[in-house]
Structure prediction request, 440 residues.
Amino acid sequence: MKKLLTVALALLLASTLFAAGSQETASTAAPKEITLDWWTWDPSMVDQNNAIIAKFEAANPGVKITQTMVGTKEYWTKIRIQANQNKLPDVYTMSSGYVEEWAKAGLMYNLDNFVKNDDTFNVFYKSIFDVVKGISGTDSYYAIPFALVTTALYYNKDAFDAAGVAYPTNDWTWDDFRSAAKKLTIDKNNDGKIDQWGFWFYGRYAHIEPWVYANNGKLIDRTTMRFAPNQQAIDALKMLTNLVLVDKVAPPQKDMTSFQQQDVFQQGAAAMWVDGSWFVDTLRKNVGDSMRWGIVRVPSGPSGSNEMTYGWPDSYAIAPNTKNPEMAWKFARYVAGEGLGLDVYMAGKIPSAKKLAEDPMFSDPNQQPGADMNMLIAQASGPMTTSFTQGWGEWRGYGGGETLGLNGAIDAITNGQLTFDAAIKKATDSANAVLARYYK
Prediction:
């Protein structure tokens, strides 16, 4: 009996040791590999993205990132196919123009718990996150912005100096702007033709809407989701079209069709111009030091403030059915700027990660427009608005539809084809026919 008890105790000890060994082996075994699919839309960034992936994988053993790069023109067709097949990539690039549609269709992961429980707003600008939330038409965060585009008034310092006009400031009003535009509209050889316009624009969204919001204007009634410009918006549109029809300081759109739109300013045909902040990069590359130029805020209207910014972010979204939401969030934060350097950003695009936007080299003193770039940072951290809705590209007249929508209506006014009232009515009817399809 004693011998049997000894044997039993020996077996029990052996089994205990074996179990302990099994637990130790299990606890020290390599974690299961996690694979995340990442889709983006800029083929020029393939090599750059590969370097980013390598750094993230090195810092997160057991994680593998697969990159799919799709050309901008094909991106939305292909990503919609993935959505329809329930095969969305874990992390994918999202445009402000589609945030609302995709959020309401349940195609993006609700990020509220991540945003609220992490140090998100210590790392990123809350103002930019809130713009994306506002565009979604919900009370939740569905995307992680990585770059903000705002608008700026570009001005030709050489032209200002030649005309003896003081440079614009961030406190300029519409009256200041119009006064300068008149002095900068010049027939240099007295042949009866304007050689340098004070300003130039056409119906493009980035040319028009900054003025609307700088006057406390609104284009969309968010309670009815209908196009219903308030009086401040009408006043802004009237001021702009009068620059052509009354003040004669800007050309009609029809007279500028021989130019590519970005060339008018850089070739000296206009002394001022409003457009997206990404043109900082274009001007640096195309103009170099052959022209001295700067940027300031779009001048504020009599009913507005010089603090309100018109901007729209590019973001990353996470698939709602991702198998690894925590790691997808970690990677999305990383590629949204937390793990990047300023060198990966096109000049003029404002990083949503504070450490990058506040890097002294963002306002590189050795490149134009130097310290003027600080204005973009001020815009990124302040109040911001936009006009994106479902169907925005249609009612706005964006891209290939620039002869339609609000864009076409404004061009028709400056070209003398429609009166102001008739054009705004036409734009209103057209926009609301579009919006009625999306908002019942």
